[in-house]
Amino acid sequence: MSTMLEVSGLTHQYGQGERAHVAVRDLTFTIESGQLACIVGPSGCGKSTLLRCISGLIPATGGSVRLHGDEVSGVPDDLAVVFQDYSRSLFPWLTVAKNVEFPLRWQKVPKADRKRRAEEVLESVGLSGVGKKYPWQLSGGMQQRVSIARALVSRPALLLMDEPFASVDAQTRGELEDLTRRVQRELGSTILLVTHDIDESVYLADRVLVLSKSPAAIVADLDIALPADRDQITTRESEQFVSLRSEVARLLQSPQVQRTGEADTTDAAHAAGESGDAAGARTDAGSGAGSDRFTETHGTAESSDETATARS
Ligand SMILES: Nc1ncnc2c1ncn2[C@@H]1O[C@H](COP(=O)(O)OP(=O)(O)OP(=O)(O)O)[C@@H](O)[C@H]1O
């Protein structure tokens, strides 16, 4: 496997002087080509800032980001981002097909190719036949599928996903998780996905990076050695899965993660205010309560050394 993304000593500071706030400090990691990696960390720790720096939307104030060897200094052509808020990222005045084609117009791909590729990618996300509709005529889950299709249509070298399923109901969320894994395997995409949801990170990923409170530092880098074929019921029931989610939950409650030199009270209040998702059964990285609930319910938090390898 070749290295797709190389993040070295990445630091981002918002503002200057007394108003300066260091959101991420000295982060170093690599993502291999074809990997699906998830980032979890407490609310406000700097996950979105990290993705914005990787995508070139904001400049790093220290360190560097390289995409297949090239230093990122603006938004690279072969990088795509899926955001949580699909309603704000799709163009309501364009049909679904035109929304999906949009990045190809930018790349000056001929019209017939654009149409064919948009149809293909819509089919791969289970939306063939809706190309002529407008986004606002679709359900939230379908709109997020359109966003994913639009991100994939240009065959990006790296797909960044920032809490992509946080605004849909629990059942749709499961469907979109499965869609992401299927598409990633079929296309061999490299994906870096940020989530608050510990269960989701373990279910989706080949690898989970656990971040500390702001300014974010990498506390653990876990291999998720679950079988490639995953199923919302049997995988989540498996001992290996339960053990891994315990491992991540424990890490998120560890002093290493909770310790914070610079996080302000707003961050702490924000973290405490998070209360898991509508399903009520997930464990939320932004909520100590979620982890307690897990411990009470499942009480089998054994060492997961067999299934998780801490790389750092
Ligand atoms: N534009 C900005 N100007 C100043 N500070 C900012 C800005 N954007 C984010 N921050 C601060 O940087 C820190 C990290 O924010 P960021 O949104 O990256 O965290 P996050 O981990 O993605 O949060 P959440 O999990 O709640 O989405 C927070 O303390 C936040 O208040």
TrEMBL record:
Residues 254-312 are annotated as: Disordered. Residues 268-281 have a biased composition (Low complexity). InterPro entries: AAA+_ATPase, ABC_transporter-like_ATP-bd, ABC_transporter-like_CS, ABC_transporter_ATP-bind, P-loop_NTPase. Residues 5-238 form the ABC transporter domain. Residues 297-312 have a biased composition (Polar residues). It holds the Pfam family ABC_tran. Keywords: ATP-binding, Nucleotide-binding, Transport. One of its GO terms (molecular function) is ATP hydrolysis activity. This is NitT/TauT family transport system ATP-binding protein. It comes from Prauserella isguenensis.
